[in-house]
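Worked example 2:
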Amino acid sequence: QVQVVESGGGLVQPGGSLRLSCAASGSIRSINAMGWYRQAPGKQRELVAVITSGGSTNYADSVKGRFTISRDNAKNTVSLQMNSLKPEDTAVYYCNVDGITSWYLPQHFNSWGQGTQVTVSS
């Protein structure tokens, strides 16, 4: 079993900042990639940012230059620093972790957190 728990989020005014954090725990041998996705009401879930174990990153065009993803490989955590927030950033943000279990027979896993609400409004 792999657990993914997010923290952070909340209500912020346009132009403000928030920091989301995510921690993965359980039967983890290694993590390939950790990422953040978001889903606004009536829309499909979309990629926000992802970071590999080697530190390579990929961002959605809509957040480039405003959001920064970082991770601590030793602690199996990932963070998303969100600056210059806009009303269109309002969504539920989900953490995703992709890796290999530490079971006797290792298996690939892909786990999601429960989501955290980010609301950008004046």
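The radius of gyration is 14 Å. The chain has a mean pLDDT of 96.
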